């Protein structure tokens, strides 16, 4: 038996999210199906660094699983990609130690969020960016993001649909940069609550559009009330970019 | 009554081609539906520079239509875009003279064809590029494209499924350039037969892969026989890029 760690990328517009659900095409189900084919019908459970919602993309999602097959690591990637549909690709497969866990061993995660600023929509990017045809106040936005940095209770930035009780997370880094009509946000933290990145983006955009002042972020955080923060930005601009582990 | 000329862009993966067909979602049908809404139920026929097949994209398709509405040209664009789905966008609307015709007045057309050369597939580009994970002999390909330039009988590079009898076309320009794993072909000609660009690309790729010599193009053209040319490259790499008219 060997444990394998894979880095995978997928187009979220092709799936009903990551996690297995009855009668839905999910990322987990499609990968487990491919593994079952490789294992002559034997079911192989995979474990990811975390779920992604319907529409959310992944550039560097990490999964692990155990296999009795004696396949060299460099052959796993080719074998899996030949069995997976075009909407998923395995970018890397490594053998790992038997107590590595893709979810429990996460040190930090990076998400990116992409916004198209052009006035006209781009028909080719409709599933891959959030279209905001308005100018944004970058100075106010830079001010706003500072208030998120650090270890805080993010209850106001978490969907009500969650069972997790501990809403304290540490955000290490938020930045944004513009490159030919595309505004990209980078978020790095030790973990993110359900919809947390999308609610932060939605709220930062409301600051950028002048609907809120940047200082409101402080009050919103203090109130620990989801209804005080901004709208949840759409899923299709969000990318799980990278998952970091202790070596 | 005024005649309007529009430049439109669409994602071919969302439609069963350009031309109206029963029970299919086509580009023409969707635009005519939007116009019918604007004209309170009155049907407005549109005319394009030419059809595009299912899966083929457009950056600069041109259409014209006549309307009795007294809307200034700059308001037409916003009105139409608000009624069209996300997969189509109107980029420009101009009033034109009453004998302008989007198809009959074409002077030349430009198509582009995009090929992803990376070894791994890109899940986000699966509808937008043709994936060729092999190295190509650019010198042989450059040699091959020269034989297409000029006024020739392109019977060998035309789908058998066509009613057009005159297979003589003039190709003004073919070039290709590589930019970070993306190979782009540009084709400019006075007109292109059914599947002509895709069969030329398929054949040039077979030269690039070493399956054929570049000089074979000369013989293939002379034989006026579709079965002698290469495979038709997939529709999803093809873009109708620009349509040129007199002034």
UniProtKB/TrEMBL annotation, chains A, B:
Its EC number is 5.4.99.12. CDD domains: PseudoU_synth_EcTruA (cd02570). Keywords: Isomerase, tRNA processing. The active site is at 53 (nucleophile). GO terms for molecular function: tRNA pseudouridine(38-40) synthase activity. The keyword Heme does not apply. Substrate binds at residue 111. The keyword Acyltransferase does not apply. InterPro entries: PsdUridine_synth_cat_dom_sf, PsdUridine_synth_TruA, PsdUridine_synth_TruA_a/b_dom, PsdUridine_synth_TruA_C, TruA/RsuA/RluB/E/F_N. It holds the Pfam family PseudoU_synth_1. Residues 8-105, 144-246 form the Pseudouridine synthase I TruA alpha/beta domain. It catalyses: uridine(38/39/40) in tRNA = pseudouridine(38/39/40) in tRNA. Formation of pseudouridine at positions 38, 39 and 40 in the anticodon stem and loop of transfer RNAs. Homodimer. Belongs to the tRNA pseudouridine synthase TruA family. This is tRNA pseudouridine synthase A. It comes from Bacillus salitolerans. The gene is truA.
């Amino acid at each position: 038996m060997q444990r394998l760690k894979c880095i995978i990328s997928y187009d979220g517009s092709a799936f009903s999210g990551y996690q297995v659900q009855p009668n839905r095409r999910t990322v987990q189900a499609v990968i487990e199906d491919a593994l079952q084919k490789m294992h002559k019908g034997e079911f192989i459970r995979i474990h990811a660094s975390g779920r992604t919602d319907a529409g959310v993309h992944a550039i560097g999602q990490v999964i692990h699983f155990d296999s009795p097959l004696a396949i060299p690591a460099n052959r796993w990637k080719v074998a899996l990609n030949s069995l997976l549909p075009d909407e998923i690709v395995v970018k890397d497969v490594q053998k790992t130690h038997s107590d590595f866990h893709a979810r429990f061993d996460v040190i930090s995660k990076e998400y990116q969020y992409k916004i198209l600023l052009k006035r006209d929509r781009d028909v080719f990017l409709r599933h891959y960016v959030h279209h905001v045809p308005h100018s944004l106040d970058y100075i106010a936005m830079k001010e706003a993001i500072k208030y998120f940095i650090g270890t805080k209770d993010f209850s106001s930035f978490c969907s009500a649909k969650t069972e997790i009780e501990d809403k304290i997370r540490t955000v290490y880094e938020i930045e944004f940069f513009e490159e030919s009509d595309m505004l990209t946000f980078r978020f790095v933290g030790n973990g993110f609550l359900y919809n947390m990145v999308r609610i932060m983006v939605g709220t930062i955009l409301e600051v950028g559009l002048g609907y809120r002042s940047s200082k409101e972020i402080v009050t919103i955080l203090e109130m620990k009330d989801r209804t005080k923060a901004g709208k949840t930005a759409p899923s299709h601009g969000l990318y799980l970019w990278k998952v970091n582990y202790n070596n």
